[in-house]
Amino acid sequence: MKKLKFLIPLAVFLGLVGFLLVGLGLNPREVPSPLIGKPAPAFDLPRLDDPAQRVRTQDLHGKVWMLNVWASWCAACRDEHPLLVEMARRKIVPIYGLDYKDSRAAGLQTLSRFGDPYVVSLFDADGRVGIDWGVYGVPETFIIDKAGVIRMKHIGPLTPDVVRDKIEPLVRQLNG
Amino acid sequence: MARWIVILTLALLAGWTQAKEAAPAAADPVLEARMQRIALELRCLVCQNQTIADSNAELAVDLRNQVREMISRGDSDQMIIDYMTARYGDFVLYRPPLKGTTLVLWFGPAVLLLGGLATLYVVLRRRNRLSPDQFEPDPDDQTPAMPTPAATATRTTRPHD
User: Fold this and answer.
1) Which residues of B touch A36 (CB under 8 A)?
2) Mean pLDDT of A83-94
3) Nearest residue on chain B to A34, alpha-carbon basis
4) Residues B27-33: what's their mean pLDDT?
């Protein structure tokens, strides 16, 4: 045992290297959301295409759905947009949009130009609902289960890998 | 002419003082000070090494407005901090709470420092107990036991060395 004492500094060093290696792989932009496993924050918002109609959180109870936070001014949203259109075409999960801090005209124009993957787009002009959902970097995507609990959050544009490896299995599991 | 310069200067100065006073007068200074104090505790998630008091990101502006609104509604500081952590997690706090998941964060550096100091102490004390002949002689040390530079020089030039 005493002979192995010279290995202690090496062990300490390797421990530090371990921490630093993990730290290198982490993305500081991806802050874990405290909302996962919690009931989705309530909202009562007008539709983007029709201010007279409102959508409330309880309207969505009883089904698995996806909330995608987007805006016409958000360049990364445009990157993920074709993927959302593809998801809607394959009917993986009903996608609800949250048009965050946008103007109605610009939002509608974006949808007519690039296609509309959303069942409904909600219009959050002042970003208040965005704050309630802990949104800090558009685009963000949430998966909500039948009981209205947030099960997953993805920060930044969706990628085919995320959809295939995380969203699809999760939705299947929640629906099954 | 001189009178005109004086009048012009005064007119300009009047405009300047007015402009300086306009900003703080717009809002309640007590509320503003409290908002500022709370905002200094909160991290802006868009520009992560700034507080929401320092940042001009849109989210920081929104969150400052949210803090203002909650203050004027009569919420306590703790309620505002809780509101933010419920949405953005402990990461928004510049002084994260002490709990299981933050133990390494709080005490890691101190443990490393104390460990290093303890190791240094042990090593130095052990070295202090060693007898002098365990150490290599210091080349700069001009003790009589050491050959003088001249002697070294002659020795190295000895042909059969």
Assistant:
1) none
2) 94
3) B89
4) 85
Q: Using the beta-carbon criterion (under 8 Å), do A132 and B87 form an inter-chain contact? A: yes
Predicted confidence (pLDDT) at residue B125 exceeds the cutoff of 70? yes
Of A75, A51, A48, give the one whose Cα is nearest residue A137.
A75
Beta strand segments in A17-174, E: 44-46, 54-56, 65-70, 95-100, 120-124, 140-144, 150-155
Phi-psi region of A127 (alpha: psi -120 to 50; beta: other; left: phi over 0): left
Q: Smallest CA–CA separation between B20 and chain A, in Å?
A: 30
Evaluate whether ipTM surpasses 0.90.
no
Question: pTM for this structure?
Answer: 0.73
CB contact under 8 Å between B87 and A32, yes or no, is no
Domains of chain A, by residue range, sit at 38-175
What architecture does CATH give domain A38-175? 3-Layer(aba) Sandwich (3.40)
Ranges of each domain in chain B: 24-97, 98-130
What percent of chain A stands above pLDDT 70?
A: 99
For the domain made up of B24-97, give the CATH fold. Helicase, Ruva Protein; domain 3 (1.10.8)
CB contact under 8 A, B58 and A132: no
